[in-house]
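re the bet — no i am not wrong, look at it urself. input seq straight from the record:
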Amino acid sequence: MAVEDVVGVGVGICSVGAGLCLKVYVSKLTPQIEDRVPATLEGARVEVEVVGDISAT
């Protein structure tokens, strides 16, 4: 997914309800992210989580 401010993706526990979902980790929430990231993908719930900037040291 080539969307600015997306810093990672993964599988995690949903914040609402039970079970697993796809997580899209972003440095900040923008209108572009809200428009481009679907609520579900092939039947799986998708959640956006703001994590800030990620860097390796």
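see?? The chain has a mean pLDDT of 92. told u. also The chain has one domain: 6-50. so pay up
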